[in-house]
Amino acid sequence: xxxxxxxxxxxxxxxxxxxxxxxxxxxxxxxxxxxxxxxxxxxxxxxxxxxxxxxxxxxxxxxxxxxxxxxxxxxxxxxxxxxxxxxxxxxxxxxxxxxxxxxxxxxxxxxxxxxxxxxxxxxxxxxxxxxxxxxxxxxxxxxxxxxxxxxxxxxxxxxxxxxxxxxxxxxxxxxxxxxxxxxxxxxxxxxxxxxxxxxxxxxxxxxxxxxxxxxxxxxxxxxxxxxxxxxx
Amino acid sequence: xxxxxxxxxxxxxxxxxxxxxxxxxxxxxxxxxxxxxxxxxxxxxxxxxxxxxxxxxxxxxxxxxxxxxxxxxxxxxxxxxxxxxxxxxxxxxxxxxxxxxxxxxxxxxxxxxxxxxxxxxxxxxxxxxxxxxxxxxxxxxxxxxxxxxxxxxxxxxxxxxxxxxxxxxxxxxxxxxxxxxxxxxxxxxxxxxxxxxxxxxxxxxxxxxxxxxxxxxxxxxxxxxxxxxxxx
Lengths: 232, 232
Fold this sequence. Notes:
2 copies of one chain form a homodimer.
Chain A: E1 3-7, E2 22-26, H1 31-40, E3 45-49, H2 52-60, E4 64-69, E5 72-73, H3 83-86, E6 95-99, H4 102-108, E7 115-119, H5 124-132, E8 138-142, H6 151-163, E9 167-168, H7 171-183, H8 187-191, H9 195-201, H10 206-212, E10 222-225, E11 228-231
Parallel strand pairs in A: 1-8, 1-9, 2-7, 2-8, 3-6, 4-6
Antiparallel strand pairs in A: 4-5, 7-10, 10-11
Helix pairs in contact in A: 5-6, 6-7
């Protein structure tokens, strides 16, 4: 049976071989949840970039700009980093350039993989179904928080493992899988204990957390191709 | 309340500030279990070194030599890396120089801490009691396996958190604590699922695994001072 491994943070990706594998990048609060929500709701394409300046340059070329620093929308940008921003009609049928920190780093560090998918609880089953149709080994790449392991991405890794026809391989996969199994009846409760949930709750965005933890709201698969995210 | 953090592998120690803190280094299979067992059974002092050559040089100066590479005792060394080797009478009242890979690295990377303790299930409660008498913040530093997170050290981190008068701080501490809580009634079963347990089981040392997972066999605390481990 093919394997599924978990990389708990981009700071540990050097321990994983990506060649020939599918990398599933996840940043539940909130980058990859936004990406999935946006593409499910009519956004045409999303380009993740690491700097605010790159994002502004794309803005000048007609892209919608999105991003936050420290949880706050960047002043002159069109959208912040709330999934609800991506549901706004001004984003529909447009291309969005998004500046995120943890999410973009995890994507960049996944570039050695054969295919990069973007995962979120919002499209959990659809992503699993897609992967189950192909034979490749899988690496679930958690974006974490500034290089540290986080609860919500680890939970997602365990949830995806649970749905894959693949053998959990390595202790990080085992940890993530057990962590999910023990909390599957109340994912939101444990996710809200995470450090990042506490940071975000300070900005009064409780509804974002609830939204990002909603499972299978959308039936779509998101891939990276030529530096741009689109629906498959 | 003072804090307890967890560093899941030495590859993530850069994310933790050690200054003024107690670092508890743990490498359950088998380095720190050997150290605790040895010092509890009459070994006078243990010096962890990173290279086989350093170990040999100390051997020439009268130290007992101990160590393994890839789970196998080094040919010309006195002891291997089994806790039972450290119970041998030839080690009693002697100084032991030990070459380990993961354990030594975690100790070296803990040198910024105010105090370094060596933890194992074998002296879990004693270590907790000692820490509970002092006010310092705590970092539990898991040695892992070649930089990767492992199950058994993470379990120990959760078990120690459970006994400390300290607030688990950060998502790694939360993960470790929950992982322990969900498996506390059968630590051995989940520890045996770890990748390293599988590697070691191949060498026919099942009894080592059982021994390393025995809780509170010894009532002693082990500290590092001037590069040497001794009982407190």
